[in-house]
Specification:
The complex is a heterodimer of chains A (about 160) and B (about 230). Chain A is of the alpha/beta class and about 160 residues long. Chain A is built from five helices and eight strands, in the order E-H-E-H-H-E-E-H-E-E-E-H-E. With about 230 residues, chain B is an alpha/beta fold. Classes of the chains: A alpha/beta (about 160), B alpha/beta (about 230).
């Protein structure tokens, strides 16, 4: 199962995503959803393990991720990086890990709460491709998975 | 020298490790005759004033924790509200910290921060980097207190250093980070002894917070099985 988190404001994702995903796919349009910034309270690690203290629409996303192997982020960009809307849905992913620490890929990492998750990025606009590739690699490594790639959206494509 | 410090952490000021770091750093600035004003992005009511201060001053420091390998989303949102054109140039420097102690973990975010000032017509004043800050919040614990006081004293010294050099492009700022990666024998020691100790510590904290579930609980998997 692949979850596509589409954070583009217009709420429409390019057909391109269909060519990138080979298995079952569920697109979640987050633009109309109520999603707060992670506030770093640590409750999902130390007080209610695996459950975020913020009660908003992100809980449904976590539940979907628990049943998924792949995660694609569709995001606009700013300052050469994903914009705050794209980063916001990634910052809230913390309950997918737990507090315990191990060494993975030669680095300190938090243990996976569930299973490995692969990560890919489809981005809109002008950004630093090389930087996004390294970011994507590191995010995937944190989630115990592989990077599925960093793809720039083709301009002017029909939307689904 | 007068410095505007913006705390880019989303965590409320009272519990913010970044705030604790800023207070220690600010102490060093003041001891050396500099002054500073502080804005915290966790409080939306401070955003307008932070923006005004950003535009009206020539020395700006963003202090931030590492969130998912880069800048916290709340700080990215604030940066989008800032005008990219300004009357007089300024220098933007950064204090970047994170939970893990390896410098390597913070380098990608550093690269992003390096690229930021130019996008606002400003110059880059360097980035002060140190990990291992998770325990700052737990420094009431007697065992942790000494190590954490030492860590915070380090930030006070860096405040003094910034007041005299005007940036973080110094050897002492570079050395402040400590080891880039843990050597192989630390990995070995971790597997043999430290891992169990660290786990126990975390469980102790959780208990204090009133946690009643195991830390590696899988709450949503339970829901799936029930279904």
């Amino acid at each position: 199962m692949t979850i596509v988190l589409n954070t583009l404001e217009e709420g429409a994702v390019s057909e391109q995503i269909g060519t990138l995903v080979k298995d079952d796919m569920e697109v979640v349009n987050t633009s109309g959803m109520k999603i707060a910034h992670c506030m770093g309270c640590n409750q999902c690690w130390l007080k209610t393990p695996g459950v975020c203290a913020i009660k908003d629409d992100y809980e449904g996303i976590i539940k979907r991720l628990v049943g998924a192997e792949n995660l694609w982020l569709v995001s606009d960009t700013r300052f050469g990086f994903v914009d705050w809307r794209g980063k916001r849905v990634m910052d809230r992913i913390v309950p997918m890990l737990n507090m315990y620490i191990e060494f993975r890929d030669g680095l300190e990492r938090h243990e996976l709460r569930y299973h490995p998750l692969n990560f890919g990025l489809l981005y809109k606009g002008e950004a630093d491709q090389e930087f996004l590739e390294e970011w994507s690699q590191r995010v995937a490594s944190n989630l115990g998975g592989q990077s599925l790639g960093v793809i720039k959206m083709k301009e002017g494509e029909p939307c689904i | 020298m007068h410095i505007v410090i913006i705390n880019g952490s989303p965590r409320v000021q009272k519990y913010s490790n970044t705030d604790t770091i800023i207070q220690s750093f600010g102490k060093g600035l003041q001891e050396s005759g500099s002054t500073y004003e502080l804005y915290s992005l966790s409080n939306r009511k401070e955003w307008d004033a932070a923006c005004d201060a950003f535009l009206a001053n020539e020395q700006i420091i963003f202090a931030l924790p590492l969130y998912v390998e880069c800048v916290p989303s709340i700080m990215l949102e604030f940066l989008e509200t800032l005008p990219i054109k300004r009357q007089q140039s300024a220098q933007i420097s950064f204090i970047l910290h994170g939970g893990f102690d390896e410098g390597h973990q913070l380098r990608l975010c550093e690269r992003f921060l390096q690229s930021l000032p130019a996008q606002f017509g400003c110059t880059y004043g360097g980035c002060l980097i140190q990990g291992g800050s998770f325990l700052i919040r737990m420094r009431d614990d007697e065992k942790m207190k000494k190590a954490m006081d030492q860590k915070l004293d380090g930030y006070t010294k860096m405040g003094q250093s910034f007041a005299s050099h005007g940036n973080f492009m110094t050897t002492e700022a570079r050395k402040f980070t400590g080891p880039e990666k843990n050597p192989w024998f630390v990995h070995l020691l971790f597997r043999l002894f430290i891992k169990r100790l660290v786990r126990k510590n975390f469980e102790h904290f959780a208990q204090q917070w009133g946690c009643t579930r195991p830390l590696d609980d899988k709450p949503y998997l339970r829901l799936e099985i029930k279904r």
